[in-house]
Amino acid sequence: MAGLYFDELTVGQLFRHAIRRTVTETDNLFISALTHNPAQLHLDEEYCRTQTEFGQRIVNSTFTLGLMVGVSVGDTTLGTAIANLGWDEVRFPKPVFHGDTLRIETEVIELRESRSRPNAGIVTYLHRAYNQRDELVAHCRRSGLQLKRPTTPRDPDLS
Asked: What's the pTM value of the predicted model, to 2 decimals?
């Protein structure tokens, strides 16, 4: 199991995830088709070249958000998450284009004990995605319910 338990995390802990990803046209087409998003900004090169400030298609932000959070899972929640509780303050300050290579950072910004589950706590992460020019292209806060390290029952024969 790669993820960390709630009690192994500290506020301020920063993960610089090793996985980087170059975004492709196929990624953009698939996510746009899967989500039934026909926006010209994602699919129509001629429209984007002649009628937008970007001059080219931009990557569907749903893909950027999913990639940003997905890359973080192996280092943070793989095998230790109970549930994703929500995303807040999702922002895309710069566009992502086909061919951009994204790197992701995750910071633990809040920890609190669960009031209803003694075996878990609530973690708030701040995820940030940067392109190859170190420009911030996306960020969000994500809260999740995460397992605490299991306690090992005491062997009665050793008492």
From this structure: 0.91
